[in-house]
# Entry
Amino acid sequence: MKTPVLAIVLLAACGGDGVVPVVTKVPTTQEQLNGNRDAVRLEDRDIDLYANRFDLDLRKSGTGVRYLLLRDLPGDTIRPDQWAAVNYRMELLNGDTAYSSEKGEPEHFHVEMDDVESGLHEAIQHLSPGDSAIIVIPSYRAYGLIGDMDKVPPRSSVVYRIGLVNVTVGR
# Structure
């Protein structure tokens, strides 16, 4: 008598709730690399569409950062370890403004040293004091996969409309 009762109890405990467990396939390293390449390719296309929409003849660096000098005054360009004072407006490709400097109050950052987008460090070095530019930075040189968790969404390119006000050696 104990054996049939034990068999019934064991069968009842076998998860008869009808829920089938979901098996998730973990992508291989190669699949992840291919997915990332596709995302970069799509982002590059989006930047091209942005440039075409506004008829911008952007120069492209080897890292994918693009820029157009709007005002190119004579003078030495800013170099690493110098301080940049800039007026700027940072937008998303859809035109939404994410951040900007206050009117008459430039922002300062230490070139190649400060915690700003690596693409901005790269592009600012094409400017001399008094220059202004449009700089388009792909997500992988801006805020990356997760954005800034505030105004810049994940995997978003950013557009800087920037003017280099002043360059100093020390702050």
